[in-house]
Task: structure prediction
Amino acid sequence: MDNLTSYFKDHEAKGIPASLKRQYEVTAADLPLCCPMPDMRLWDAHPRVYLPIQTLGTVICPYCDAEYRLVHE
Result:
């Protein structure tokens, strides 16, 4: 088992989510949107994935289930 798999299994067993919050509001300044975002405390919790939020306005990370909502300033 690699270190990343071990990390997730350990956190899953303890009930610790990869992202501390479950919902985030983002703006155009945050695009392109990736999860985890650079300012997140657990920025290395899972591989960085870019999320296509521009199309629907909301998107859920396939790794940690964090929900992002695009807001217009």
Q: What stands out?
A: Residues 3-70 form one domain. Residues 3-14 form the longest helix (12 residues). The chain has one domain: 3-70. Residues 1-5 have pLDDT under 50 and may be disordered.
